[in-house]
Amino acid sequence: MDDQPRLMHAHAAVGMSGHPGLSQHIPDNTGATDGDGRKQDIGDILQQIMTITDQSLDEAQARKHALNCHRMKPALFNVLCDVKEKTVLSIRGAQEEESPDAQLMRLDNMLLAEGVSGPEKGGGSAAAAAAAAASAGVGADNSTEHSDYRAKLTQIRQIYHTELEKYEQACNEFTTHVMNLLREQSRTRPISPKEIERMVNIIHRKFSSIQMQLKQSTCEAVMILRSRFLDARRKRRNFNKQATEILNEYFYSHLSNPYPSEEAKEELAKKCSITMSQVSNWFGNKRIRYKKNIGKFQEEANIYAARTAVSAASVSAHGSQTNSPSTPNSAAMRTYDHRLQ
DNA sequence: GAGCATGATTCGGA
DNA sequence: TCCGAATCATGCTC
């Protein structure tokens, strides 16, 4: 396993033609000139390498062993590594260009903002903002929907982290496997540590692109969840009968000026178990619809006027109040009617 | 399913 | 920022 660095480091002291040092380290056992001996050795090795794939497994193994033991093998492999390195670099130089991965950064930032990646913070700031925005309109059910949103976001978060972990584990396993394979192969073919490193980088890049896809789908899932959640604000639910009666009572008893103050809105909201915005919406709608069709609302106004009068009378009968300030009467209605004209 | 009722949203004006 | 007006979207009734 670890013989490759040793094998490659020997390169500094070994060489061939154009690679100083080879002739000084290779004894000439053939009795021929140095040049002839080297050529014969190298030719022999190359021949063996070229024909190794035509042989049976056993023969190939034996040949592999013989090659590994060949006296010229380190020198030849170093030269081949050198040549390969230069060729690959010249090709890669034209192909590779490091560009900052803006898309990945955007995805990372979004996942962080949504609370999917990074430390758990109860659904993420954007989620919290969405929840806060929604709570203004959803009313009594907002807490349920909010928790539902958070539960789903947590689910997405869990899936994301599980998948990410899986990818990282697979990446590490695959990298180790490829490294071992290349080291093993470096016994029979020229593979330098640099090349192994490059291969590792390639693997990491491939796994990064898979991770990016995961991040992208996670972002999409969060966006869908958010849009669904925000759409829920539009989901209209009728107020319960009691709430409508309370609002109508106030409206008709303040017909001369049906604009509740902040305090009144707050109290009405509390009484009706709705939000202040809903109270404002209700009064806005009521005013405009009343104005548009006074005739239609006349009957309703009379009913609430009578009801308020009865309750006022009952209060005055108890001596605590002689006259209700909010008692509706036709004069008040006329006032508002006049105002609205 | 049509038509009406009603809560929510949007937009322009004061 | 609040309000009126228009509009949307959904609920309810028949």
UniProtKB/TrEMBL annotation:
InterPro entries: HD (IPR001356), Homeobox_CS (IPR017970), Homeodomain-like_sf (IPR009057), KN_HD (IPR008422), PBX_PBC_dom (IPR005542), TALE_homeobox (IPR050224). Keywords: Activator, Developmental protein, Differentiation, DNA-binding, Homeobox, Nucleus, Transcription, Transcription regulation. Residues 318-332 have a biased composition (Polar residues). Pfam families: Homeobox_KN, PBC. One of its GO terms (biological process) is cell differentiation. It comes from the Eukaryota. Residues 37-231 form the PBC domain. Residues 232-294 bind DNA. Residues 16-40, 316-341 are annotated as: Disordered. It is found in: Nucleus. GO terms for cellular component: nucleus; transcription regulator complex. Residues 230-293 form the Homeobox domain. The keyword Plastid does not apply. The keyword DNA-binding applies. PANTHER family: HOMEOBOX PROTEIN TRANSCRIPTION FACTORS. This is Pre-B-cell leukemia transcription factor 1. It comes from Sinocyclocheilus grahami.
